[in-house]
Amino acid sequence: MTSVRLDKWLWAARFFKTRTLAARACELGRVQLHGQPVKPARDVRVDDMLAVRTDSGEFEVQVLGLSEVRGPATVAQALYRETGASRERRQQLAEQRKGMAAFEPAPESRPSKRDRRQLSRLRGRS
Questions:
Q1: Which of 16, 28, 60, 79 could form a disulfide with 22 if both were Cys (CB 3.0 to 4.6 A apart)?
Q2: How open is the CA angle 7-9-13, to the nearest 5 degrees?
Q3: pLDDT in tens, 20-56
């Protein structure tokens, strides 16, 4: 196997829970190959450089292996290598988030039913 569809590889490498989510991220421009946005059907090869933006952060990875099936996490981690700069940037952002938690006051109690309804309206969920 010399290449694999990008959405399959992202799913197999456990960046996304489903292939549908991986394909959607590609369509929204959250995945780049060599600095260019790509479509889900684009082929990925060994030694390609990917920039992947997920809920947990931004990853810059080099493709080390190919797989079309989702396996254990240890196998998935062997499919790529994250760059040092990417790893440092994610750690700095995590430390900043931890630091900001100290400035946010803790809620006095759980939200009431009325409070939950107001939050839902505020977020646009009726």
A1: 16
A2: 120
A3: 999 999 999 999 999 999 999 999 999 999 999 998 8
pTM listed for this prediction:
0.78
Report the alpha-carbon distance of residue 59 to residue 73 in Å, rounded. 17
All residues at 6 or more sequence positions from 121 whose CB lies less than 8 Å from its CB, including other chains: none
Pairing of strands 4-5, 43-44: antiparallel
Point out which residues pair with 106 in neighbouring strands: none
> For 122, phi and psi rounded to 5 degrees?
-65, -40
3 state DSSP class of 19:
helix
CB-based contact 58:52 (threshold 8 Å)? yes
Place of tokens 């809920």: 55
CATH of domain 1-85: 3.10.290.10
The single-letter DSSP state of residue 67 is -
Q: Which residues of the chain have pLDDT under 70?
A: 126
Q: Enumerate the domain spans of the chain.
A: 1-85
Q: What is the pLDDT of residue 71?
A: 93
